[in-house]
Design brief:
- With 263 residues, the chain is of the alpha/beta class.
- The protein has a single domain, classed as Rossmann fold (3-Layer(aba) Sandwich), CATH 3.40.50.
- It is built from 10 helices and 10 strands.
- A 6-stranded mixed sheet has the order 6-7-8-3-9-10, with helices on both faces. It has a 4-stranded antiparallel sheet with strand order 2-1-4-5, covered by helices on one side.
- Helix 3 runs parallel beside helix 5.
Amino acid sequence: MLEIRELYKSFNVGTVNQKDVLRGLNFTIADGDFVTIIGGNGAGKSTLLNAVAGVWKPDSGVIYIDGNDVTNMSEYKRAKFLGRVFQDPMMGTAADMQIEENLALAARRGKRRGLGWQIRPGEREKYVKLLGTLGLGLETRLTTKVGLLSGGQRQALTLLMASLTQPKLLLLDEHTAALDPKTAAKVLEITDQLVEENHLTAMMVTHNMRDAIKHGNRLIMMNEGNIVLDIAGEDKKKLTVDALLDMFSKASGSEFSNDRAIL
């Protein structure tokens, strides 16, 4: 579903502040994989996600999504392949619009739209059913403006919107980092549910090592712009934080220094 070949990306090229973030990265994700990505500050996690989303154009290399070369495709054009949830719960939804209006916009993504549109009764019934699966009581609040929701409710709604049209790839950019632990756990539970029920292919960048181990079927650990660990299947299920830290040290030749990720 995703193939990356020899991806390079640097910032502030030719200055004393030059930073080589991605260094010949090679990476593939199979259809239906849920990959968690973790690494220290500056490892290249968010740059990788932004390169896939089209925020950054790589200096060199190729990116394929579902067999389509999107390397030079603009961000808005490749959006038809992608669903994305950001770290900030305020992004990804329209605060001044109602819950049902936000869902309707998401449902019409990539389709031709005229000047007039309305939410049909059949659509409204579908939204009630979908919102009910979240277990947050939003199915009774279709006409509530999204700006009045809590951060967790809004992030759960954004997840639902991002998966509504069955994207080829769902990008989760530290989407629980701004939430309190209890709310973050609920949003991750909803994430697992939506990915599994819709058979989505997903990439989740996280700052939390325990979350990276617990969720998804494959774990990628990055360091200095490249992948140093790639763990899947039964090996991932057996992982502990201590074991992962030990493996990182052996693979990279250095200690993992991000206390926030470990704790």
